[in-house]
Inverse folding.
């Protein structure tokens, strides 16, 4: 069974530029998550989708971050404009269980550096 | 919200030694997972263990939900066990997002 796929793996941009990340969850997983992991910390949830609907986006900085999950499968996370403090690893995870009360599986992450 | 505390923050072991990592949490949980983040940043599932005890090779985990803690045991450690170990859980009142602890950084020396 293929795992969670993410691209790109690395991205370097200058502040005020925009960037987009892509995630393809494990086949059949209804719940998809985007987490942000700042160096030295544990991951923090940005947004959770159940199929193509948003369940929790309370910690998403909506003035600059946006995410969508068209057709309930792939998802994209966008930052526009980027700030220095957005430098982090962006992790996508998926879960088969309803609302995620089951094992979450993580992709390899996208490392973003904002200069 | 629910608080997750891991200890110790850092641990250095000689290859072959055993260790115990602890995760304390402040509220009842529906889900608790242990992860190993390898040096390349990949989060690898170790255990899904909201209660009870599980074993997988040299690793085992125990969660005592009524006393709000979980333990991860690593026996006969190897250099490949190095990395950061995270405890993450769902509180009973949230939608399913995982709340992560700060992690335990383990270094196993040959």
């Amino acid at each position: 069974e293929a795992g969670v796929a993410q691209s790109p793996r690395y991205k370097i941009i200058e502040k005020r530029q925009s960037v987009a990340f892509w995630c393809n969850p494990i086949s059949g997983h209804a719940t998809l998550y985007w987490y942000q992991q700042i160096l030295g910390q544990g991951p923090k949830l940005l947004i959770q989708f159940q199929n193509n609907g948003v369940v929790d986006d309370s910690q998403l900085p909506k003035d600059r971050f946006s995410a969508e999950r068209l057709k309930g499968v792939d998802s994209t996370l966008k930052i526009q404009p980027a700030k220095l403090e957005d430098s982090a690893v962006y992790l996508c995870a998926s879960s088969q269980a309803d609302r995620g009360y089951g094992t979450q599986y993580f992709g390899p992450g996208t490392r973003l550096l904002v200069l | 919200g629910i608080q997750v505390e891991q200890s110790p923050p850092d641990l250095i072991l000689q290859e072959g030694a055993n260790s115990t990592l602890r995760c304390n949490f402040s509220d009842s949980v529906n889900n608790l997972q242990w992860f190993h983040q390898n040096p390349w940043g990949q989060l690898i599932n170790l255990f899904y263990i909201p209660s009870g005890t599980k074993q997988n090779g040299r690793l085992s985990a125990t969660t005592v939900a009524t006393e709000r803690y979980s333990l991860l045991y690593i026996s006969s450690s190897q250099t490949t066990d190095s990395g950061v170990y995270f405890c993450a859980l769902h509180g009973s009142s949230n939608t399913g997002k995982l709340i992560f602890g700060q992690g335990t950084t383990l270094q196993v020396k040959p």
User: Anything to note?
Assistant: The two ends of chain A are 37 Å apart (CA to CA). Chain A touches chain B at residues 31, 33, 35, 41-45, 48, 55-56, 89, 91, 93, 95, 99-106, 108-109, 111 (CB under 8 Å). DSSP finds no helices and eleven strands in chain A.
